[in-house]
Amino acid sequence: MCLRKLAAGDRAAEVAYGHFFANPKVTLERLIEGWSDQTRTAVAGRHVLAIQDTSEIHFSTRPKHRRGLGVVGKGNARGILAHVMVAVDADNGACLGLAAGSIYNRKNLVRVSHAKRALEDKESKRWLETPQASKPVLAAADMVTVLGDRENDIFAYWAMPPEPNFHLLARMMRDRGVAGGGTVWSTTAHWLFVATRRVKLSATPGRAARTATLGLRFGEVEIVRPKGKDTRRLPKTVKLRLVEVVESDPPAGVEPVHWRLLTTHAVDDVAMAWQIVDWYRLRWIIEQLFRLMKSDGLKLEDSQLETAEALMKLTAVAAKVACVILQLVQARDGGAEPAANVFSQTEIAVLDQLNKKFEGKTKLQKNPHPRHSLTWASWIIARLGGWNGYPRARPPGPITMRNGWEYFRTFASGWLFRDMCIL
User: Fold this and answer.
1) Are residues 145 and 68 located together in one domain of the fold?
2) What is the rounded distance in angstroms from the CA atom of residue 29 to the CA atom of residue 163?
3) 156, 195, 268, 307: which has the fewest Cβ within 10 Å?
4) Sign of the four-CA dihedral 37, 42, 47, 51
């Protein structure tokens, strides 16, 4: 993410990298299109969770030098926003790559109230546009479930025309009216809890990892179209299934888990209701991706690039690299994913040569994973990043994988010139 470090002290190279990001022919749209080059193949024949979310990328500025960046978050923070959709195997939680997304800069504050604007004039249109953009990428999947958190809960999203094997799932943000009168929350308050289960909750910002006891209830609701300029052309009602889980006896001082999950999936029994909960729990994977882009990995927000346009392009690159690191970290613990989910055939040839370099003579020094699997590749990248490779060693983390990936890119670039004759 630091061009000076990337150039390794070569001023000319540093200037060249700067020119690359400033070049109008290097478009943000093409960089985002390149996110999914290998995802198209990786999703074939699977049930894919297409998880989408938005992250604020903050960059330091001065009052007289805002770098062309708009306002993000609260206060006077400046930066850009990255809306990303990541493809995840619904059965095993394996990250399969990026599917679609957008990166944008709030150049001007909008003066017209949210309720008076059409959907096309709102940032919330990304929750509909991204699933549509992902369809060609995910076409080979057996089933797709678009998954989002509370900000994804907009009526236009639920009113998207139904398609075979293309489903929606999101956590409710607000109470909604239902056909016949009343609201969703008042209706479900009379439903009986039908099952209880202990569930491991991953750590999130503001919440430590813990095991929670969740009560479960579920049923069908028919939500009513809200009033507003952008809803008049939408159906008056939409029938959905709701799965609700509530934590009993949370730790003192901890907000209890209370998820209301809406979905287009049929939920006819307890097993399917718990399945919806388990799919929603995989949403934390996209939070990992954002952390890898920022504080826990690439440290994108430390970039000193001077313009918002260049920073947006750099963010597109960072999203792709963070996804690769996430896939490598996931693969370190095993799995059957092929290396081709991340690496080209040329890069796999480079990995073969590097594997020979790192393998020792004893069994403990050998790469223990199936050749050309992603786990096999992860072992090699971790060795490049400084991990010793012994089974009892602490598993390599994101920083080790990032360092290994940087070294690997150097080897892969050099490999392209192996047959070049220099006169």
Assistant:
1) yes
2) 27
3) 268
4) negative
Full pLDDT tens readout for the chain, 423 residues = 677 777 667 788 778 888 888 899 999 999 999 999 999 999 999 999 999 999 999 998 888 788 889 888 776 788 999 999 999 999 999 999 999 999 999 876 665 556 666 777 688 899 999 999 999 999 999 999 999 999 999 999 999 988 999 999 999 999 999 999 999 999 999 999 999 999 998 877 777 888 999 999 999 999 999 987 777 889 999 999 999 999 998 888 888 999 999 999 999 999 999 999 999 999 999 999 999 999 888 999 998 888 999 999 999 999 999 999 999 999 998 888 999 999 999 999 999 999 998 988 888 889 999 999 999 999 999 999 999 988 888 999 999 999 999 899 888 887 776 665 555
Residues belonging to the chain: 423
Three-state DSSP at 309 gives helix
Burial of 28 (C-beta count, 10 Å sphere; 0-12/13-18/19+): middle
Q: Is residue 78 part of a domain?
A: yes
Task: Output the six-digit token pair for 151.
Answer: 């900000």
135 belongs to a structural domain: yes
Among candidate residues 236, 238, 276, the one with its CA nearest the CA of residue 260: 276
123 with 187, same domain?
Answer: no
Burial label for 335, CB within 10 Å (0-12, 13-18, 19+), is: middle
Supply the range of the domain harboring residue 227.
171-270
Same domain, 143 and 228: no
Distance CA 319, CA 85 (A): 10
Q: How many angstroms separate the CA atoms of 381 and 411, rounded?
A: 11
* Claim to verify: residue 145 and residue 176 sit in the same structural domain: no
Instruction: Report the distance separating Cα 421 and Cα 419, nearest Å.
Output: 6
Q: Is residue 356 part of a domain?
A: yes
Instruction: Tell me the whole-structure pTM to 2 decimals.
Output: 0.92
- Interior CA angle at 298 toward 295 and 304, to 5°? 95
- In the chain, what is the greatest distance between 2 CA atoms, to the nearest angstrom? 83
**C-alpha distances in Å from residue 18, one per residue of 14, 88, 314, 368, 420:** 6, 34, 10, 41, 27
Count structural domains, the chain. 3
Q: Domain for residue 394, yes or no? A: yes
The sign of the dihedral angle between the CA atoms of 108, 59, 173, 49 is positive
